[in-house]
């Protein structure tokens, strides 16, 4: 039983704390591991030994499968916390199917956890890579551009629209690289590399503080944290890091 309190879980020196939940708390089933041990998650009001999930991922103290388990737990608990009432009739609904459905006894509606697809893309053009940064990011960090897929869009259309809206750059070919669940609260990051058709940047200041074409050799210095001006590119745990590295290998 892993404990989820907002974006945090409970750990001790040896790893996840797996004690029983408080009475009446939300509990969901996560699955069965390779040793045939069942795993559950509960909402927790534990106030001690809390650890932020992003920090846990960065510190690499837990095995990958447990980080995946926490992502699943965080998304599901977050969904239940915000779905006490039916979005169809406003009645109180209840947990069903071990946490993968909520059922409304008033109007008989079923509600399911959702995943929101997000494209994240590294564009390139003649040996350079397009990276941007938001004001809220850590100082000096640049990363891939990203945005939610809108209703009715394909992945490719969303990628071209987002890059154009944020940076003014037109994208032609789009190639899928990999994906990453991002449980803050329930996204699936779809990682892409795009071939730019134009290179004149015009940023949308509501979305980005800066966007620039950076020569591949300089991007490598940013990835390896050896850039002379202290610029750097993405946390190693983020899919953007993989995209930048992949774009560098093939640019
Ligand atoms: Zn209802």
Could you explain how this protein is built, in words?
The protein is α+β, with helices and mostly antiparallel strands and 251 residues long. The chain folds into 3 domains: 2-82, no CATH class; 85-113, no CATH class; 116-250, Nucleoside Triphosphate Pyrophosphohydrolase, CATH 3.90.79. It contains 5 helices and 17 strands. The strands form 4 sheets. Strands 1, 2, 3, 4, 5 and 6 form a 6-stranded mixed sheet that branches. Helix 4 packs antiparallel against helix 5. The longest helix has 18 residues, at 64-81. The radius of gyration is 21 Å and the shape is globular.
CATH architecture of the largest domain, by name, is Alpha-Beta Complex
CATH superfamily of the largest domain: Nucleoside Triphosphate Pyrophosphohydrolase
Number of strands: 17
Structural class by helix and strand composition: alpha+beta
**Terminal Cα span:** 45 Å
Specify the CATH class of the largest domain. Alpha Beta
Instruction: Estimate the helix proportion, in percent.
Output: 10-25%
Largest sheet: 6 strands, mixed
Poorly predicted ranges? none
Query: How is the CATH topology of the largest domain named?
Result: Nucleoside Triphosphate Pyrophosphohydrolase
**Overall shape:** globular
H/E series = EEEEEEHHEEEEEEEHEEEHEH
Number of helical stretches of at least 4 residues: 5
Ligands (ions, cofactors included)? zinc ion
Q: How many separate structural domains? A: 3
The gyration radius over C-alpha positions equals: 21 Å
